[in-house]
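Morning run. Coffee first, then this:
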Amino acid sequence: MASRRGAEQNRAVTVTKALAFAFRRNRGEGDYLFHRVGMEPPSLFLCMNIEFDFDTHIHTPLCGHAIGEPEQIVEAADERGLRMITFTCHIPMPDESFGARGIRMRREELPVYRRFVDEAKRLGEARGIEVRYGIEAEIFPDEDVMAQMDDTLRVEPFDFVLGSLHHQLPAYHKWLRERGLVTDAEVIRHYFRHLESAVLSGRYDSVAHPDLIRLYGTLAGPFEPADHEEEIRAALRAAAQSGTCWEINTSGKFKGQGPYIHPLPEIFAWAVEEGVAFTLGSDTHTPEMLAQGFDDARRLLESNGVSTLRSFRQRKPEERPVAAAVPALGSRAR
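And here it is:
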C-alpha cells in the first residue's frame, strides 16, 4: 500500500511540474491564468534540489505587474530553502515615458515600499530568513534624468542597487529616434556602450538581465553575440574594472522567447574570461516563481568553473559559495 501511495505521489509531482512548465512557458510570467480561475499556480520546485539559498531580485505589487504579499513571499522563500532574499522593486522615475502605473511605483510610494519590506523582515526573522531592502534602478543615457534618480539613491538605505537598461520603454526608443539610430547594429552597439558607462558611474552594484536587448522587439532581427563581441567585452572589462557585478537573471528562460537565462552562455563565458563577478536573481513577479531556473544557473556556473557569487548588504559585497545546498522535496529548513 505504501509503495502504491508513493508511486501515486510521484506521478502527481511529475504532472504538476509539467503543468507548471507549460503554464509559464506558454503564458509568460505576466499572465496569471491559475489566479484567474481561483487556483494557485503549481510550483516548479516540489522535488527539486536547488543549490542556492538566496535570491536577490524580487518584485512587489507596488510595481503594478507583480503579485504577492509579504507573508506569501516569505513563506514561498522558506518552502524553497532560501535563507536570504532581497526585494528590488522598480525605482520611481520622473515621467511616464519610463513606465506609468503598472510598471513602477511613484516616488510618494517609497514609504509604502519600506513598510512592505519591513513587514517581510519581521516575518522572515521568525523563519530564519534575512530580508534585505534593494531597488532596481534605471540605466539611461541622460545625466539630467539620472540626477533625479540619484536623489532617491542618496536618501534611501538600500542594501542593493540593480541597474537595468529597459530598452523597450518609450524613453529609450525616443532617445534612439532622436539620434537616428535605427539599425540593429547601431542599437546593440549603443546598448552595450550604455552598460559600459553605467558600471563606471558607481551607481549600481550589479547590472540586471544584461543582455535584455535580445528580447521585447526593439531589434528587427535576431541577436547574435558573436557579431558584437567587441562592444560586449568592453562593457565586461569596465564591469570588472569597477567591481560592478553582472546578474545571472533566470527569468530569461520563462519569457517565451528562447530557452536561455540571462546572460546567454556565450556572453557568460566572456564575462568569466574578463573577471566579472556575478549576482543571482530570479526576477520573480509571483511568490511561486522565487528561485525559478536556479538549476540552469547552477549548470552555467559549474560549466564555467565559477565557485562564488556575490550578494550585497548595506551596499557592501559578500562572497557566497555556489554549492549552498538546500533540502530537496520542498521540505522546509528550520
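Residues 1-50, 324-334 have pLDDT under 50 and may be disordered. Good start to the day.
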